[in-house]
From TrEMBL:
Transmembrane segments: none annotated. This is ABC transporter ATP-binding protein. GO terms for molecular function: ATP binding; ATP hydrolysis activity. It comes from Lederbergia citrisecunda. Signal peptide: none annotated.
Length: 257
């Protein structure tokens, strides 16, 4: 059995007068340590899928198993990093990154030490006592990554975590997240609208069609692109080839919508 198994997931959103099918017959699996991106046109259910994986609500039908457990029963398995950093402005950076550990009842001297060491490793040494307003957007997202990693999740869910950043900062953060997750052998799922980001960070790309969201096609990223940083990937010939292929598929899906 794979580390993550999604089987025949469908989901409806209900109002008093209508029902909307957001996802239909979604099935895929992920091996431990793999990095997958979910890509597709607006309204194809990517974020709905991520929310279900996070255990925020169950699917209408189908099943999900993460390391032999359901996401609803063991949210400690999962770390979630969003487009906004959602750091508490009245807490110091140190207090923010300790928050998940505190909520999980795992805050002790050892876990504090590990969290602060990670903060140092990602270039934020010396900001522990500062408040979020004192940091740049890129530094705040680094702090959000430190908060996510502090609880040592088995699965990281990344919901467009770089989209609010300027392009240069975005590229630097892509490299940092990629290298961090590889170093710690973490399994990750990224939701993005950016084809280049999906290619440069992923082992595989799951392309969704819309209305309702279905899996249209799964792309394997060429082996030569998987072992270099996202910044370096963009300079490879194989990057341009797969970019054009995915672009054409995505364009055809958007025309259908």
């Amino acid at each position: 059995m794979s580390f993550l198994e999604v089987k025949q997931v469908a989901h409806f959103y209900f109002t008093p007068s209508t029902s909307t099918k957001a996802l239909e017959d979604i099935s895929f699996s992920i091996e431990e340590g793999e990095f997958i991106s979910l890509l597709g046109p607006s309204g194809c259910g990517k974020t709905t899928m991520l929310s279900i994986l996070a255990g925020l609500f169950p699917p209408t039908s189908g099943s999900i198993m993460i390391d032999h457990e359901s996401p609803e029963t063991n949210s400690n398995l999962i770390g979630y990093m969003l487009q906004q950093d959602y750091l508490f402005p009245w807490k110091t950076i140190e207090e923010n990154i300790f928050l998940g550990l505190k909520l999980n009842g795992r805050l002790n001297e050892e876990t504090k030490k590990n969290a602060l060491l990670f903060l140092k490793q990602i270039g934020l040494e010396g900001v522990e006592k500062q408040f979020p307003r004192q940091l740049s957007g890129g530094m705040r997202q680094r702090a959000a990554l430190a908060r996510t990693m502090a609880v040592n999740p088995k699965l990281l869910l990344l919901d467009e975590p770089f989209s609010a950043l300027d392009y240069q900062t975005k590229l630097k953060l892509e490299d940092l997240v990629f290298e961090t997750l590889r170093a710690y052998k973490k399994t990750a799922i990224l939701v993005t609208h950016d084809i280049g980001e999906a290619i440069s960070m992923s082992d595989r790309i799951v392309l969704f069609s819309a209305k309702p969201g279905r899996i249209h096609r799964i792309f394997d990223v060429p082996e030569e692109l998987r072992h270099v940083t996202p910044f370096e990937v963009r300079g490879k010939e194989a990057y341009n080839d797969i970019f054009q292929t995915i672009w054409k598929e995505l364009e055809s899906l958007e025309e259908l919508n």
